[in-house]
Automatic annotation (TrEMBL):
One of its GO terms (cellular component) is cytoplasm. Belongs to the ketopantoate reductase family. Residues 179-300 form the Ketopantoate reductase C-terminal domain. PANTHER family: 2-DEHYDROPANTOATE 2-REDUCTASE, 2-DEHYDROPANTOATE 2-REDUCTASE-RELATED. This is 2-dehydropantoate 2-reductase. Pathway: Cofactor biosynthesis; (R)-pantothenate biosynthesis; (R)-pantoate from 3-methyl-2-oxobutanoate: step 2/2. Its EC number is 1.1.1.169. It catalyses: (R)-pantoate + NADP(+) = 2-dehydropantoate + NADPH + H(+). Pfam families: ApbA, ApbA_C.
Amino acid sequence: MFPRILVVGLGALGGRIACQLAAAGVPVMGVSGGGAADGDVKDLTYQGPDGTQLHVSIPLAKDHHDAWNFNPSYALVAVKSYHSDQVCDYLLKALQEGAMAVTLQNGIGNLEKLQRALGEDRAAVGVCTYGASIRDHKVLWGGDGEIALGSPSGRDLSDLARAIASAGFNVRLSNDPLGELWRKAAVNCCINPLTAILRVPNGRLLKSPWALELTESVVREVSLAARLNGVDMDPVRTAGTVRLVMEATGNNRSSMLQDLEAGRTTEIEALSLEVARICTAAGSDAPVCRTLGLLVKAMEELPKENN
Ligand code: KPL
């Protein structure tokens, strides 16, 4: 028997995960957007790499009472990082005692927010390098990667790993969740702003020596910020991981590029600009991350037709 899973945020990644879990027979309930739903169910279609489609109807939690009554063992959090505070308030009311929240989000600081809201023992990470996008109300495959699950307090997540693996994802249990988070932050600090500024799919960056040179500087800066947070990250190995993700999600348009194209706020504050803030606060600097971050902020402000 699989654990019951609440998927909070049914955007591209949350939608893909919810769809694949439900199709595999895992009991799933969804929470869309800010937590308020229009109907009782959400019909989701996910189109895989070979064009095959999964169609599922996922029950929606209209409010936190529905989620509480569903009694999930896990909430997978897949909302934008700037909605984390709102989601913490929601989960405090929606989760029964002992249920855990697992952040699949991009960005630095999401785990800490969940830990503060629910307690250290009830927050975990699911570092995810899968790609997805939404077109014409359909969730589209955007590349495969892995989901590394880890609980800083050492809680056993193997039942969650089994459920996610049954849905066709590569899952790994990690005893270094903070290292996983920082390596993923490096991936996103490289791929997301560069693809958003250059307006190219992820794999295109591999063809540009200039973009790859920038990537190496970004990885060095993220490694410094990680070290300032007590996490040792090997810049050479991490740059290799970044290139692997560029390749595996080659045709995907990063979430930041998708956000800019749709006129939405991006997650740059929790990525490049957070790295710059951490380094500056320690008397150091992260000039490349800061510049990329400010460029993306300036692009957010441009009228949509220019984006
Ligand atoms: O996390 C992603 C994102 O776009 O936000 C990657 C893994 C880079 C896929 O595009």
